[in-house]
Design a protein that fits this description.
With about 250 residues, this protein is mainly α. Helices cover about 65% and strands about 0% of the residues. Helix 3 (about 40-75) runs antiparallel to helix 8 (about 170-205), helix 4 (about 75-90) packs antiparallel against helix 5 and helix 7 (about 140-155) runs antiparallel to helix 8.
C-alpha cells in the first residue's frame, strides 16, 4: 500500500514540479495565452504550494509540542490531588470539608462518587435489565482544570488547611493552576494555527480554477492542443497523476 505522503499533498506538489519541468523543456513552442499557464506563473505557484506545505509542517510541530507540554504539566495532577486529600484529612478540618475534597478528587481521578448497583446473576437470569448509566467521567483537560480550581477554592476557604510542604500550599497550587490553564490555552491556539495552515494549503492545491490541480489540468490540455493527442509531449504530461487528497 502506498503511503499517505506518496499519494497526498506532497506528491501533488512534486508532480506539479515534474509538469513544469516538462513544459520548460518544450522551449519557445510552449507559449500559452492564459496568464496562469505561463512558466513564470507556474513557478510562482509551485513556490507558494511548497510554502503552504511547509507552513502546515511548522504549525503541526508547534501543535505537537504544545500537546506534549500540556500532557507533562497535567501528569502530576492526579497523584497530587490524592496527596492533598490525605493532607487535609490529617488536619482538624470538618468532615464535611474533607468529604467535599474527596468528591472533587474522585472527579479528578475519573471515579464515581458511588458505585452503581447492578442486578445479581439470579435477577439477570429472571429477566432483569442491566442498569444503563451515562458516562460520568469528566477527564477532558477543561474539566480537570475546573475540578482542580474547585479543589483549590475549597482549600482556600478552610482555615485549618495550613500545610508545611511547599507543593501542598495554596499559593503553589494556584501557580500550578495558572500553568495548566496556560498550557491548555497554548494547545487551543496551536490547533487553530494548524487548522488555518491546512485551509491555506488546501486552497493553494485544490481551489477551483486557480489551485495546483486545476492549473495542472489546464496545462495538460494546452500541451494536448499544442502538440496533439498522440504526441510524445502529451504522453509525458498525461501520465502525471494528481489526486484530491483528504489526508491531513
Amino acid at each position: 500500500m502506498a503511503s499517505t505522503i506518496e499519494t497526498g499533498h506532497a506528491k501533488n506538489v512534486a508532480t506539479f514540479e515534474d509538469l513544469i519541468s516538462f513544459c520548460t523543456g518544450y522551449g519557445a513552442p510552449y507559449n500559452p495565452s492564459k496568464a496562469l499557464l505561463k512558466l513564470p506563473a507556474l513557478t510562482t505557484q509551485l513556490t507558494g504550494a511548497n510554502a503552504a506545505l511547509q507552513a502546515v509542517k511548522v504549525a503541526k510541530t508547534a501543535y505537537d509540542n504544545a500537546t506534549n507540554a500540556r500532557e507533562l504539566a497535567f501528569k502530576p495532577l492526579k497523584p497530587l490531588a490524592t496527596k492533598i486529600v490525605n493532607a487535609l484529612a490529617a488536619t482538624e478540618a470538618s468532615a464535611q470539608t474533607v468529604d467535599d475534597v474527596k468528591t472533587t478528587n474522585n472527579k479528578i481521578q475519573g471515579k464515581r462518587a458511588k458505585a452503581v448497583e447492578k442486578p445479581d446473576a439470579s435477577a439477570l437470569a429472571a429477566g432483569a435489565e442491566p442498569v444503563k448509566t451515562a458516562s460520568t467521567s469528566q477527564q477532558s483537560y477543561d474539566k480537570l482544570i475546573d475540578h482542580f480550581a474547585q479543589l483549590i477554592a475549597t482549600l482556600t476557604a478552610e482555615p485549618k488547611y495550613l500545610p508545611n510542604e511547599n507543593d501542598l500550599k495554596v499559593a503553589t497550587l494556584n501557580t500550578m493552576l495558572t500553568d495548566l490553564r496556560a498550557k491548555n490555552t497554548a494547545v487551543i491556539s496551536a490547533y487553530t494555527a494548524v487548522s488555518n495552515a491546512r485551509i491555506a494549503r488546501d486552497k493553494a492545491l485544490y481551489a477551483e480554477t486557480t489551485g495546483v490541480l486545476d492549473v495542472a489540468q489546464d496545462v495538460k490540455q494546452y500541451v494536448k492542443s499544442l502538440f496533439g493527442a498522440t504526441s510524445p509531449q502529451f504522453k509525458q504530461v498525461s501520465g502525471l497523476k494528481f489526486t484530491r487528497s483528504t489526508a491531513e
